[in-house]
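Can't paste images in this forum, so I'm doing it all in text. The chain is below; anyone willing to post the predicted structure tokens underneath?
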Amino acid sequence: RTATANRCHDEEWRFGCRNVGLPSDSDLSYYLQSISEFPLLSREAEKRVTAKVAALNQLELERTYLAEKLGVENPSLQQWASFVRAPIDSFQDELHAMHCARDRLVTANLRLVVALSKKYFNSCSSSSS
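Text version of the structure:
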């Protein structure tokens, strides 16, 4: 498992995804509290993060093409770096940064969904009173 995969697994565990079925109220409360601890993205940060995610998506398309070309399911990191003409060390570091950017964008979007849901819920609650 890669460091990114470990981090993602750890976050899923921490956010209560370990349960099968519907989350309990305490799991949901903990999840909402957990994501609220992450700062929102500024407009400039969102542009930077989105650019990194777009670059990651492009690299993943190139990896898929390479896998088909080589007739393998998953090309090695070395093969992938060579295919995109990148030094392996910087390629690995940049991939990690891109995965972190994707995680950051997902977290920021979850915060946005929660904020909009709360506004909607509150407006529906106050209009039905």
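Residues 88-127 form the longest helix (40 residues). The helical segments are 3-14, 25-36, 43-70, 77-83, 88-127.
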